[in-house]
Amino acid sequence: MKWDNSFAVGIEAIDNQHKKIFEHLLAIENAVAKRDPWNILRFHLAQLTEYMKFHFAVEESLLEIVTYPDRANHGEAHARLLDQIVELEDQLKKKATGENLVAFFEDWFIRHVLSSDREYAAYVKEEFPALFGRRPA
Question: Whose CB has fewer CB within 10 Å in the chain, the N or C terminal residue?
Answer without folding.
Answer: C
